[in-house]
Structure formats: structure tokens, C-alpha cells
């Protein structure tokens, strides 16, 4: 309405954008185009007790969605998925998928957050949030964990050498009217994502990951 090329005149001093609860990678280019310049993006992984992790390019090699845990106010412990033993930070291994527990330094509160993390590296310690532990969807009596859906997407991305940055899964029906999953896939280069190939390989990956 104002005939502006971008928002530089609207927000001339905006240099840093903080975000939480969403992936920013798929929106970064569009936001910078609207602002008319490069800005810093700082992701925050947080809880009621305080910040749990920071998505800082200087620590994660510029890979968004990888958090460096904040040890200033919170004490962490973990449990590998499928195991019972609670472990500390020093016991983590690269590639581990873990539940995360936290407590305050005074130990008054200690509880399971409910998030499932993947340990991307231990030196430095970087984590990705895979989803919620024990949280799943049920379509046509097929029970899937959200982390299993994420694992399937990662496997097919690697197999097809095509990057999917985000996805939605929801109940739908196939061409014959049979209840099924429907997917919406987000990619920086949609031409690289062949729908028929992904349809077939996602189904195969889900069958391998989840026997239901």
C-alpha cells in the first residue's frame, strides 16, 4: 500500500530476530528479502524454568535447528529411547536419541520434559529436537510416533538426495477412498522432490521403522 520495495524504512534498526518453537530455515530468505538486508537469526529452545538451548550459527556451523544446551540455570539428565537407565551429559554419544529431563540447580524440581532429542555431536554438544516422546498419530489403526515420522523423512532425504525442510502429516484418503496418511512436504527446491518416489520410499521407510 505504501509502495515500498522492502521494510528497511519501516524497521531501519532491526538487526537480530529471535525465534522459538519453529524451524526458521525455510523462512530465512523470504524474511531477509522483505527486510532488504541480512540479519542475525537466534533460535531459542526453552522451558518454563528458563532457556534450555540456543541455535547460534557460530556454534552449529550455520545449521539451523541445532541447539547448544544452556547450562547456566538448568541441570540436565537423559534416557536413551528404549532404555531405562538415566544418564548424564558425559554419557551421551553422537547419534543417540534420548528423552531429556531437567531440574533447577537447587533440585527442587526434576521432571521429564517429554521431548525426544537427537545428539548431533558431543564436542561441541549439539542437539536436534525430533518431537515428543510417546506422542503419535493414529490413522486406520496404524500407530506412529512423531519421531518415527521424522526418521522416515530423514532416511528418504538421504536416499533420494533431496532435502525436505519441513512436513505435515494428516489423515486423508487415497485415490480408492481408503483411509491413509497424506503428506505436505516443504523444500527449498521443490523440483528435486519427486512426489511418486517420495510416496513409495516413505511407505517403505515407515514399514521398516514401525511394524504396525
Question: Could you characterize what this model shows?
Answer:
By secondary structure, the protein is α+β, with helices and mostly antiparallel strands. 21% of the residues lie in helices and 38% in strands. The protein has 4 helices and 12 strands. A hairpin with a 2-residue loop joins strand 9 and strand 10. Helix 3 crosses helix 4 (195-209). The longest helix has 15 residues, at 146-160.
| Percent of residues in helices | 10-25%
The strand line-up of the biggest sheet is 1-2-3-4-8-7-6-5
Give the distance, in angstroms, between the N- and C-terminal Cα atoms: 53 Å
**CA-atom Rg in angstroms:** 20 Å
* Sheet having the most strands: 8 strands, mixed
Low-confidence stretches: none
Strand content: 35-45%
In DSSP terms (H or I, runs of 4 or more residues), the helix count works out at 4
Secondary-structure-based class equals alpha+beta
Q: What value does the average pLDDT take?
A: 86
Helix and strand run: EHEEHEEEEEEEHEEH
Overall 3D form: flat
In total, how many beta strands? 12
Offer a concise description of the structure:
With 212 residues, the chain is of the alpha+beta class.
Features:
single chain; 212 residues; alpha+beta; 8-stranded mixed beta sheet; two-stranded antiparallel ribbon; flat
Amino acid at each position: 500500500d505504501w509502495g515500498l520495495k522492502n521494510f528497511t524504512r519501516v524497521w531501519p534498526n532491526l538487526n537480530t530476530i529471535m525465534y522459538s518453537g519453529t524451524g526458521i530455515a525455510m523462512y530465512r530468505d523470504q524474511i531477509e528479502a522483505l527486510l532488504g538486508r541480512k540479519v542475525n537469526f537466534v533460535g531459542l529452545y526453552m522451558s518454563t524454568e528458563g532457556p534450555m538451548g540456543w541455535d547460534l550459527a557460530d556454534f552449529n556451523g550455520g545449521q539451523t535447528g541445532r541447539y547448544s544446551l544452556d547450562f547456566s540455570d538448568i541441570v540436565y539428565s537423559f534416557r536413551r529411547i528404549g532404555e531405562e537407565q538415566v544418564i548424564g551429559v558425559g554419557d551421551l554419544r553422537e547419534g543417540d536419541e534420548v528423552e531429556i529431563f531437567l531440574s533447577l540447580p537447587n533440585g527442587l524440581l526434576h521432571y521429564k520434559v517429554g521431548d525426544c532429542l537427537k545428539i548431533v555431536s558431543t564436542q561441541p554438544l549439539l542437539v536436534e529436537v525430533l518431537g515428543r516422546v510417546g506422542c503419535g498419530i493414529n490413522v486406520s489403526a496404524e500407530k506412529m510416533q512423531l519421531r518415527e515420522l521424522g526418521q522416515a523423512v530423514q532416511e528418504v532425504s538421504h536416499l533420494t538426495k533431496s532435502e525436505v525442510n519441513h512436513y505435515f502429516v494428516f489423515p486423508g484418503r487415497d485415490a480408492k477412498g481408503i483411509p491413509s496418511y497424506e503428506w505436505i512436504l516443504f523444500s527449498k527446491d521443490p523440483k528435486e522432490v519427486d512426489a511418486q518416489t517420495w510416496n513409495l520410499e516413505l511407505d517403505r521407510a515407515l514399514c521398516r521403522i514401525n511394524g504396525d
